[in-house]
Structure formats: structure tokens, C-alpha cells
Amino acid sequence: MNGNIATDFIMWFLFLAFFAYIMRELEIWRIIRDIERYISLYKSIRDKALVVTLNTFKEVAAKTKSRLDLKMLEERVMGLVESVLIEPVSMDPFGIVGKLKHIVLTGDRTATQEVKRLIPEASETDVENLKNLIAASRSLNIIYKSVDHVYRLGRKFKSIWLLYQLQALLPFVTEAMRALESSLEAFTNGFPVGDGAGPLLAARFIKKFGGNELKIEEIAEETIMAEVPFKNRKVLVIKAKGPSGVTGRLDDAFEEIVVKRKIPEKMVIKVD
Questions:
Q1: How far is Cα of residue 21 from the mean position of the Cα atoms in its chain?
Q2: pTM for the full model?
Q3: Which are the contacts of 257, defined by CB distance < 8 A and separation ≥ 6?
Q4: DSSP line for 231-248
Q5: d(CA 256, CA 220)
Q6: What's the CA angle centered on 144, arms 34 and 55, to 5 degrees?
Q7: Residue 64 burial by CB count (10 A; 0-12/13-18/19+): exposed, middle or buried?
Q8: Could you report how far apart the first and last alpha carbons of the chain are, in Å?
Q9: For residue 178, is pLDDT > 90?
Q10: 3-state percent helix, strand, coil for the chain, nearest multiple of 5
């Protein structure tokens, strides 16, 4: 009798263990299928961005009547999309803001040189639009590869907790992917990014109160300044030169005015 009870207990234990194992495997399979649907979506968005970028390069080349090697174009664009900027260590005792700015500006100059190397006759507007498309494609590519990397790790080691965490984050990641996807149209056509309230207000202020003899100076790279008389005051209006997603170097412009030219400021008004 005791032997039968022990046997039944062992059988029940084995059955429950097998049932728990099967349920865990089914849950992992369900999560994997769900994550794979997201990854397929991300891949299609990334590929769409690459196609839009390549087509825009071709359109600019046709507009400027430039000869373009399509194979080299695809290789160079993929090289730019696959490139990454390595940020400085946050524990640097000398601070990271200046170094981070140097890295960002170096990356921007490199992108400009690469675009001009492919299409030397491209205008500044076209160069900026192409750079923005490359940046959007790079961001989409990084997100896609990061998600795919975590997914492959979780699937390889059958880590249900890693897959759970990834699955929980994917709806939010999808929002970021959709936002970047929607930016492709803006960058392709040179539309302003964001509401553009600050640059629009500055431009309207300059136009309304500047007069015909107004002098506009490029005080920093991609940044202009206008000295506008307003109610017996001298107003220095600084804005990005534009167009498209060019945000200018407003910090360099402000430093040029206050530190180098030593123009005293009584009030600073920022419009964002």
C-alpha cells in the first residue's frame, strides 16, 4: 500500500513538473511570436527609411545632373547608417559637455563631407535634408538592431524574464519608431521639424521691425543675428539660419556676443 502511494506521488510530481515545463515553453513560444511581429514591423520601417534615403539621393543627383554610382551610393549610405557615435564617459572629472559637443559636431561635419563627396553639386538645403534622412535611418537601424539583439539573447537562452521585459517595452519602442518614420516625409521635403514657433517668431520680428537697411550677420556656423531697433532699444535677434532641421549653434552665437564682443546684455528672452 505504501509503495503504491509513493509511486502515485512520484507520478503526480512528474506530471506536474512536465505540465509546468510545457506551460513555460508555450508561454515562451507565445512571447517570441509576439516579439517577432514587432521586429518584422521595425525591419520594414528601417528598410523603408533606407529606400527613401536612397531615392532622395537619386532625385538630388538627377536635379543637379550629377553622375552617381548606384552601387557606391548604397555602400556609402549603409556605411553612414551603420556608423555610431561613442559618447564620452559620464564620470570624466573634466566634464563631458564640451567633449560631447565636439563629438556631435565632428559627426555632423563628417556627414556633410560624405554627402558632398557623393553629390558635390548639391545645394546646402539638399545636403541638410540628406543628412537628416541619414540620421533618421541611423536611429531606426539602431533601435531595430538593439531590439533584435535582446530578442535573440532571450530566445537563445530561453530567458522568459528577459523576453517578458522586452515584450513590455515594445509598445513604447513602437511609438518612437512611428515618430521617426513620420519624420521621413518632413526631411525629404525640407519641412520644419517641430512647431517652429521660435524661428518663426524671430523671423517675423526681424521682418516687421528691421526696416530696409537691416544687416543680417552670420555670427556663428548656421546661425544668424540681426540688430533690430524696437521702442528705442537695440534688440539682437539670433536664430538658426535654416532651412529644414538645421538648428544652428545658438550657444556659440551667444558666447560670441557676450564673451568675445563684450556686448552688455540687459535681458535675454528665449523662444522655444
A1: 42
A2: 0.83
A3: 219, 225, 236, 238, 263, 265
A4: TTEEEEEEEE--STT---
A5: 8
A6: 120
A7: middle
A8: 83
A9: yes
A10: 70, 10, 25
Retrieve residue 184's grid coordinates.
Answer: 521621413
DSSP state of 61: H
Residue 268 and residue 48: Cα distance in Å, rounded?
43
Alpha carbon separation from 21 to 12, 73, 134, 166, 236 (Å, rounded): 14, 51, 46, 22, 71
- Residue recorded with cell 563684450: 262
Residue 119 per-residue DSSP state: -
pLDDT digits (tens, 9 = 90+) for 34-92: 999 999 999 999 999 999 999 999 999 999 888 888 888 889 999 999 988 888 777 67
Where does residue 2 rank: exposed (0-12), middle (13-18), buried (19+ CB within 10 A)?
exposed
Residue 270 dihedral angles phi and psi, to the nearest 5°: -110, 135
